[in-house]
């Protein structure tokens, strides 16, 4: 195998190119976004920043400064996901927020702020499937109990008035779909 010599000049030019690309990775990504998408990303990362403040980390410019991503770990992202559930956020919102965090973690990795290993772990944090979130969300569980009690009370009243269970169920479904 023949060793091909590489000049020091080409190494420094490549290093400069990498440094430039890394310093502009957030800006280049955001330039391609629609205004509403950028606003949503801003809101999502503001919520993530609020969570980080809650756990004792101050990260206020996560949207603009890739250096702010230093120290973000999969454990923090996993805790953020759970914190949102505890705060009563909808499953779809949690998953959207999580997706935004992952996108910016990927960009921070590209910029050399996060290691490939740290990003790989963050990437493995999965969102909730709708059924999983319903089962573990205390707010949704409470709504189900109230709904079940209301439905059973209405069914009892319908039976007392001589209506059959079947006709009551059909009427109930029609009212819910209207």
The helix-and-strand class reads: mainly alpha
Q: What is the CATH level 1 assignment of the largest domain? A: Mainly Alpha
Question: Level of helix content?
Answer: over 70%
Q: Mind summarizing the main beta sheet?
A: none
Structural domains: how many: 2
Calculate Rg over CA atoms. Answer: 25 Å
Shape, per Cα inertia axes: elongated
**What is the typical, i.e. mean, pLDDT?**
79
| Topology pattern, helix = H, strand = E | HHHHHHHHH
Annotated CATH topology of the largest domain: DNA polymerase, domain 1
Our measurement of the CA-to-CA distance between the termini, rounded to an integer number of angstroms, reads 76 Å
Percentage of residues in DSSP E strands = under 5%
Low-confidence stretches: 141-146, 165-178
The name of the CATH architecture of the largest domain is Orthogonal Bundle
Number of strands: 0
Question: How many separate helices?
Answer: 9
Index terms:
mainly alpha; DNA polymerase, domain 1; disordered C terminus
């Amino acid at each position: 195998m023949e060793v091909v010599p590489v000049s020091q000049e080409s190494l420094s030019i490549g290093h400069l190119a990498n440094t430039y690309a890394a310093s502009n990775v957030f800006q280049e990504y955001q330039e391609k976004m629609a205004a509403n998408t950028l606003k949503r990303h801003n809101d999502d990362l503001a919520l993530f920043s609020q969570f980080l403040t809650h756990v004792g980390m101050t990260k206020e410019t996560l949207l603009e400064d890739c250096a702010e991503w230093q120290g973000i770990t999969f454990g923090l992202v996993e805790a953020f996901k759970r914190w949102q559930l505890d705060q009563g956020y909808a499953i779809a919102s949690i998953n959207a927020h999580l997706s935004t965090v992952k996108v910016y973690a990927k960009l921070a990795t590209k910029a050399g702020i996060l290691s490939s290993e740290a990003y790989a772990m963050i990437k493995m944090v999965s969102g909730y499937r709708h059924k999983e979130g319903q089962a573990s969300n205390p707010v949704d569980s409470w709504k189900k109990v109230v709904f079940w009690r209301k439905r059973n009370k209405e069914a009892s009243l319908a039976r007392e008035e001589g209506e059959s269970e079947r006709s009551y169920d059909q009427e109930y479904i029609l009212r819910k779909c209207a």
